[in-house]
């Protein structure tokens, strides 16, 4: 279903309902470009750390516009053993609301625009009929301006908040809530009141109504009941970053803060590209691009799911590809997820034919986002510190800007097979086939004048020093500190031969730390307080407190979010809505 | 006529012919945005110098895309006393030619895109069917790459230039040229050879053919025979800047270099907004926006010209406005020019009913581009130094960033009427109604702590010092040094009361320096060698020589251009083509 400016309001209840009743949903975005700085190759260097990758994407990709947002909700019809889909294609454009509202500037990359044009993308629809939007801060400012003008027009000296405009179909619900709260306030013997679960939109109306009805203040908090529904995407890091940046708030400077923010906005994510690149799929899926993956998953040993679009929703035909329309891509992504999840079920004994989005089988893939072209870190871990591969076979080389790849091959010709990963004009990472060669190379280069070689560890050490970031790098092995939860047993997909991390060529990808030789820190009894210091509420510094406050406010305001309460007067339960 | 990627090649001869036979032509561009930095108000501060304005536009406007270029050629049909027009609408888009060719990034401003969308602008046509282009340097690089690949494919070690692909209809012409040159080279008694006039495209073919045929080199230069045909635009500074920047080469750092470059690319420009803002039009035209101007010029004392579109060209109907399509805007601009030129003719005795684009009557308007919202400098003078108004009633004020316009009004409340022109968050120009008040204001402020006031002259002096630019500022009166040519007598339009420069309110605009009290330096016998130092060929420094070389090459390469020759072996005469 196409959602544009003119039919947005009338269709919004359908969107809410689709999310409400869905088992899971898939998302996808179309952007006006990818990299506004270095070439995509330089943007995605093979030895980026997750932190570096995040910083690069933040710096060079956020000025593009997400102008089509695809959302496909999947609901399983048990009676008929089929999935029922509701697919939405939102055209979005930051049409200025008035002269005083933000006049957004966005970058277009010719190659991306040309590609979309060749796929028949309708730019006129985006620019003429795109749904306008504001992020939270912009909305707040606009409301303030509006309130001010209104109060000036009323001739009132003091600012009075305006009553909330409540849609007809919500009036009854809101009236009931108010009645409940007034009763609660009169009784006084009870310390808290829990309201019934409601949608994100209803919650917003409640907050606004209460803020207007009780100008002296009333403490209201959102109660978290569940992790939210599963949101599936394909190679979704940029989609997630853009969605938050464009519709919620500018991305935080720090990767850890980004992780916190993301798990607030999207409590449960699954990346089908990561899933397809991981055992047991890795060995039976050659090409993980969405189009190829979709084709592959129609063949044995996979079993394409029975899917049907809901009444009133146009159906997609996967035979005639409509790839790169966000709604269709989201739909395909959902199909891929179902096929792969069901395949995991088929490996059980007895086999399980239909694996749900809440199954333990897929838990190892939760909140891990695929990292494009990073040689030895398969994913960004949203729920804790990232994998730290030992890069003891990697050298950092600095050289004159005239050097080309061939010069590097010549320099290292004595060391057999090497892999080069350019950083910029005058430096690159060179990975040797054996770690023992590293010291030889460093020693040999000591008196060289035109170039300089250091070990990866030295390079990182100096970089950290210069940044004065107090973070320890362990050089023993891959380590993952999973602070938040004990290690989930889950299934281990050791069905095929395990490829060691150092071997050049095929990548080893696994969201299960054990598979990639990653040990769980907690289970070893090692504790690094600095690594564990990701909860800003525990940070004693004022800066930390500010962040904590910000994050708390965010948790309260964003519909998908939830937070524990201190001593709330009124509590709302949050259902699985968006 | 709509020119897109698919019909560009087949219609190119029509474009050449239209230009070839035209008396003059009008241009207009549509862009993806206006200001990528400060608000348009800050971009166009009321006391910008032409240098400052150029720098601002260069910095904040060149990242937008010119995606529709309008060209309307006007030819007078003497037999039927009417103008015959050929209007072209070029859709342009930097579609990447290959993976190694430039992947242009451009900025879009939501308000501009929204405005064009509301006018029915077809973005799909731009992005799907826009004519791709390269600037000169990009073309050179691509040719080099192509030559290199070709020579590698041929197995040749040395680079051999590829033969030029000459269109069928040009082969005879080129063969004749080659024959002539070979005869000349055999004779040897003559030192130069002048070829017949040719079009810009033919000249390009000749250069390419000779460069391939005589790999050892042959000295070829373009001989200037005429100033080129008149190109008319409305408020055309940005159009000119974008056209050069996008299709020719990045804009030079320095305003004087920009002027040199512009007069090479467009030897004769006329801005209808400047014309309409100047006497005798100023007093009878209230609104100089293109749409309003066009309406006004249909009424007395103006006489709308008889115009007809050429056969095979769709006609525009000015009654149903199609404003903001570049081809239509160019058409309207041409109409406005004709009406105003004819009005000038009607003031003569005996009256002249039809004033040509080569008439002396319009010479005072040549090569002067309207400067938007500058209070006391009506135009950018492309043919010499700019006007230097005395700003002895202007103060430069620095203050805390919390200050608002009202704070400034309060500060100067004792001085009567003032005008404020913001520079940035913490500074503004304040013009007082009388110059005598300036010193009082400066003295009063001497011990103030929160703000600082200096005279405009002090401000400029400090700015110049810090830039180490050796340019003298005269503070007596407006002065224009017209180095290149003796003062053209031309007509003086002193038909109405002359408004003095200092008076607040209505602007005095005139391209005739005498009208605005500007004196001609040469006629006064004053000579400032620094002001005259704009010919880089005379600059003894290496940097100057480099510039000279660059400009010379440019003159040689660009079709509209011309340059005097040193001692050319072969000379080409340049006709009025583009």
TrEMBL record, chains A, B:
<dbReference type="InterPro" id="IPR001374">
    <property type="entry name" value="R3H_dom"/>
</dbReference>
<dbReference type="InterPro" id="IPR034042">
    <property type="entry name" value="PARN_R3H"/>
</dbReference>
<keyword id="KW-0269">Exonuclease</keyword>
<keyword id="KW-0378">Hydrolase</keyword>
<keyword id="KW-0694">RNA-binding</keyword>
<feature type="region of interest" description="Disordered">
    <location>
        <begin position="509"/>
        <end position="543"/>
    </location>
</feature>
<dbReference type="InterPro" id="IPR035979">
    <property type="entry name" value="RBD_domain_sf"/>
</dbReference>
<keyword id="KW-0963">Cytoplasm</keyword>
<dbReference type="Pfam" id="PF04857">
    <property type="entry name" value="CAF1"/>
</dbReference>
<comment type="similarity">
    <text>Belongs to the CAF1 family.</text>
</comment>
<dbReference type="InterPro" id="IPR012337">
    <property type="entry name" value="RNaseH-like_sf"/>
</dbReference>
<feature type="domain" description="R3H">
    <location>
        <begin position="171"/>
        <end position="237"/>
    </location>
</feature>
<dbReference type="InterPro" id="IPR036867">
    <property type="entry name" value="R3H_dom_sf"/>
</dbReference>
<keyword id="KW-0479">Metal-binding</keyword>
<feature type="compositionally biased region" description="Basic and acidic residues">
    <location>
        <begin position="512"/>
        <end position="524"/>
    </location>
</feature>
<dbReference type="InterPro" id="IPR051181">
    <property type="entry name" value="CAF1_poly(A)_ribonucleases"/>
</dbReference>
<dbReference type="InterPro" id="IPR012677">
    <property type="entry name" value="Nucleotide-bd_a/b_plait_sf"/>
</dbReference>
<dbReference type="InterPro" id="IPR036397">
    <property type="entry name" value="RNaseH_sf"/>
</dbReference>
<keyword id="KW-0539">Nucleus</keyword>
<dbReference type="InterPro" id="IPR014789">
    <property type="entry name" value="PolyA-riboNase_RNA-binding"/>
</dbReference>
<dbReference type="Pfam" id="PF08675">
    <property type="entry name" value="RNA_bind"/>
</dbReference>
<protein>
    <recommendedName>
        <fullName>Poly(A)-specific ribonuclease PARN</fullName>
        <ecNumber>3.1.13.4</ecNumber>
    </recommendedName>
</protein>
<keyword id="KW-0540">Nuclease</keyword>
<dbReference type="InterPro" id="IPR006941">
    <property type="entry name" value="RNase_CAF1"/>
</dbReference>
């Amino acid at each position: 279903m196409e959602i544009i400016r003119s039919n947005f309001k009338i269709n919004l209840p359908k969107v809410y309902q689709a999310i409400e009743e869905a088992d899971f949903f898939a998302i996808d975005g179309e952007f006006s470009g990818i990299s506004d700085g270095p070439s995509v190759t330089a943007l995605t260097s093979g030895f980026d750390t997750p932190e570096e990758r995040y910083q690069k994407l933040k710096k060079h990709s956020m000025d593009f516009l997400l102008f089509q947002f695809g959302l496909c909700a999947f609901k399983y019809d048990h009676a008929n053993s089929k999935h029922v889909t509701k697919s939405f294609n939102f055209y979005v454009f930051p049409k200025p609301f008035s002269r005083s509202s933000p006049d957004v500037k966005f970058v277009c990359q010719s190659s991306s625009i040309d590609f979309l044009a060749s796929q028949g993308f309708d730019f006129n629809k985006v620019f003429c009929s795109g749904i306008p939007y504001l992020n939270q801060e912009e909305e707040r400012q606009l409301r303030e301006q509006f309130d001010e003008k209104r109060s000036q027009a009323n001739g009132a000296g003091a600012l009075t908040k305006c009553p909330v405009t409540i849609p007809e179909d919500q009036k009854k619900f809101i009236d009931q809530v108010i009645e409940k709260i007034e009763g609660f306030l009169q009784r006084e013997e009870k310390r808290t009141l829990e309201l019934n679960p409601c949608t994100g939109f209803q919650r917003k109306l409640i907050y606004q109504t209460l803020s207007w009805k009780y100008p002296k203040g009333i403490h209201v908090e959102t109660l978290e009941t569940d992790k939210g529904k599963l949101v599936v995407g394909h190679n979704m890091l940029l989609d997630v970053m853009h969605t938050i940046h464009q519709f919620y708030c500018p991305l935080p400077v720090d990767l850890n803060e980004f992780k916190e923010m993301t798990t607030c906005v999207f409590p449960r994510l699954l990346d089908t590209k990561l899933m397809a690149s991981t055992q047991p799929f890795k060995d039976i899926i050659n090409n993980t691009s969405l189009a190829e993956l979709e084709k592959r998953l129609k063949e044995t040993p996979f079993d394409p799911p029975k899917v049907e679009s809901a009444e009133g929703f146009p159906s997609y035909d996967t035979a005639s590809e409509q790839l790169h329309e966000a709604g269709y891509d989201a739909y395909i992504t959902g199909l891929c997820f179902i096929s792969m999840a069901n395949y995991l079920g088929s490996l059980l004994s007895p086999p399980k034919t239909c694996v749900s989005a809440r199954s333990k089988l897929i838990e190892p893939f939760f909140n891990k986002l695929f990292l494009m072209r990073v040689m030895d870190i398969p994913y960004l871990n949203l729920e804790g510190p990232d994998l730290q591969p030992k890069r003891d076979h990697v050298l950092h080389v600095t050289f004159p800007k005239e050097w080309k790849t061939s010069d590097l091959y010549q320099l290292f010709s004595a060391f057999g097979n090497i892999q080069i990963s350019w950083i910029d004009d005058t430096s690159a990472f060179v990975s040797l086939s054996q770690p023992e060669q590293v010291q030889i190379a460093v020693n040999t280069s000591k008196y060289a004048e035109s170039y300089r070689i250091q070990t990866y560890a030295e390079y990182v050490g100096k970089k950290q020093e210069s940044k004065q970031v107090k973070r320890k790098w362990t050089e023993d092995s891959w380590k993952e500190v999973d602070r938040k939860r004990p290690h989930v047993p889950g299934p281990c997909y050791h069905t095929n031969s395990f490829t060691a991390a150092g071997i050049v060529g095929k990548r080893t990808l696994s969201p299960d730390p054990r598979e990639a030789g990653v040990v769980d820190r907690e289970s070893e009894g090692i504790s690094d307080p600095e690594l564990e210091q990701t909860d800003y509420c525990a940070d004693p510094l004022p800066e930390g407190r500010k962040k904590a406050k910000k994050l708390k406010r965010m948790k309260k305001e964003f519909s998908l979010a939830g937070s524990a309460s201190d001593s709330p007067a009124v509590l709302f339960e949050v259902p699985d809505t968006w």
